[in-house]
Inverse folding.
């Protein structure tokens, strides 16, 4: 999936809503939202692709205070399908109003937990019948997990104080593997050189990319060098 | 049978969680001698306050026979904190697609002498399939799991060998501990299922279990006690006495549930 690079926007401002739109478009979703409370500043970050009239209604009526896709999902480690929330009274209340605005009630919320225990909530929805929705969700769930953490990390580091606190900590193994990538070795080669499985190489590289906030391995090499974590070869 | 308990359904299955904490005390404190905090015969730590997901294994009588605790590696988890010895002080892997499994154990006593005759290996396989399938549904691709060498051998013998380990095997209490990597692939799940002859859905639907837990209460009422209630009912002269009998019967049922 194509992700918008949120790290290096030309004007220094990240286009979070544009990123959400991009996620929707590439995964076949109707709407996407993200919300979190910053662990240090207490600032609430919220972005959505929902239409303005729903945003206004939602805020005016304080629906965020009873929205189970926020309150309940924040306490789960796994994605929470909205179908699991249907029995709660708050669900009926919030979603009967959403229905009047022509918004779907089939969706899923991905909770992200950050290093400070803070929670980011990434929600997506699509107006599909139950079986169609489940099929789509199963297909894209891995993508959604990655997008959720990527977006959460981007939002959290958008405040300068967090950038320094969240300096990426790579393990020796992660640095070693990234150094071999910089030297032009393939993942299979690296596995052979270090006598570890290909899967181990992949898992460490994935972790490295996410820690360095890189969308591609090439980008991770660049960031690794610029941060002095590895040396150019 | 496998039940996943998280913050959304923990109120319904509180008694099962309580039994799980007691199993963890027997395993990690008594048997393995780990330096874990025991309160009232229950092993509970600060990560239990982080709303983890528990994969709990139950036998036919709904006794807890195994469990594991899952946390996201993007947030606070054990390898980033208390198990830093295993990683030799190195920072842990962090990924949206990797979960950490800790407090993985099965009840040796019950499985050895229990009437079901289920072996420890079979229970371990079912619990592992539970973790892998639950994680896979959530889009997770790898599990990093803290285990002891005995569990490691069981995994290897049941066609479920970790594809690698991170950090080192370090001494912890009476046994050693290590962090193993397992991919949540369809192939691995198939292999473990085949090894332990596990077929079909292993997850108990929540509402069915809630019903089973209520049904479990009934047989506890002894025949004598049931006769007594029947007598009370037939000799009741008005609705008030009948209602009182019903209430007493209900109250006794509720008591035996806990």
């Amino acid at each position: 999936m194509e992700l918008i690079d949120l790290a290096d926007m030309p004007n220094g401002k990240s286009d979070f809503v544009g990123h959400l739109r991009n996620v929707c478009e590439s995964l076949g979703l109707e709407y996407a939202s993200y919300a979190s409370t910053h662990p240090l500043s207490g600032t609430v970050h919220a972005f959505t692709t929902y239409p303005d009239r729903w945003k206004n209604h939602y805020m005016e009526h304080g629906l965020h205070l009873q929205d189970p896709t926020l309150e309940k999902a924040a306490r789960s480690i796994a994605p929470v399908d909205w179908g699991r929330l249907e029995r709660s009274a708050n669900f009926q209340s919030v979603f009967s109003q959403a229905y009047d605005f022509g918004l779907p009630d089939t969706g899923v919320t991905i909770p992200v937990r950050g290093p400070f225990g803070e929670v980011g909530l990434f929600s997506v929805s699509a107006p599909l019948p139950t079986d169609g929705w489940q099929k789509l969700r199963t297909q894209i769930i891995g993508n959604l997990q990655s997008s959720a953490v990527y977006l959460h990390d981007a939002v959290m580091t958008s405040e300068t104080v967090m950038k320094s606190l969240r300096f990426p900590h790579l393990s020796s193994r992660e640095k070693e593997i990234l150094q071999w990538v910089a030297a032009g070795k393939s993942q299979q080669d690296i596995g052979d050189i270090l006598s570890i499985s290909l899967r181990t190489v992949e898992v460490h590289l994935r972790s490295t990319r996410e820690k360095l906030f890189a969308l591609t391995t090439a980008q991770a090499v660049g960031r690794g060098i610029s941060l002095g974590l590895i040396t150019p070869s | 049978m496998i039940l996943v308990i998280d913050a959304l359904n923990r109120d319904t299955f509180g008694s099962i969680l309580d039994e799980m904490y007691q199993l963890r005390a027997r395993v990690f404190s008594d048997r393995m001698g780990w330096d874990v905090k025991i309160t009232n015969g229950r092993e509970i730590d600060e990560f239990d306050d982080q709303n983890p997901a528990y994969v709990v294994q139950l036998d036919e009588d709904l006794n807890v026979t195994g469990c594991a605790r899952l946390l996201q590696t993007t947030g606070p988890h054990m390898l980033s904190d208390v198990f830093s010895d295993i990683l030799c002080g190195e920072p842990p892997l962090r990924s949206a697609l990797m979960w950490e499994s800790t407090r993985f154990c099965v009840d040796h006593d019950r499985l050895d002498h229990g009437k079901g005759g289920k072996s420890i290996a079979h229970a371990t396989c079912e619990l592992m399939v539970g973790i892998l399938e639950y994680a896979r549904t959530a889009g997770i691709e790898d599990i990093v799991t803290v285990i002891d060498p005995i569990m490691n051998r069981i995994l290897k013998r049941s066609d479920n060998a970790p594809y690698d380990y991170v950090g080192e095997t370090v001494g912890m209490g009476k046994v050693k501990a290590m962090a193993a990597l397992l991919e949540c692939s369809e192939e691995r799940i198939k292999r473990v299922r085949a090894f332990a002859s596990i077929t079909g859905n292993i997850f108990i639907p929540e509402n069915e279990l809630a019903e089973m837990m209520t049904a479990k209460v009934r047989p506890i009422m002894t025949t004598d006690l049931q006769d007594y209630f029947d007598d009370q009912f037939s000799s009741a002269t008005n609705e008030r006495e009948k209602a009182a009998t019903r209430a007493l019967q209900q109250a006794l049922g509720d008591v035996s549930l806990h």
About this structure: The beta strands of chain A are 31-37, 44-48, 80-81, 107-113, 119-125. The mean pLDDT of chain A is 90.
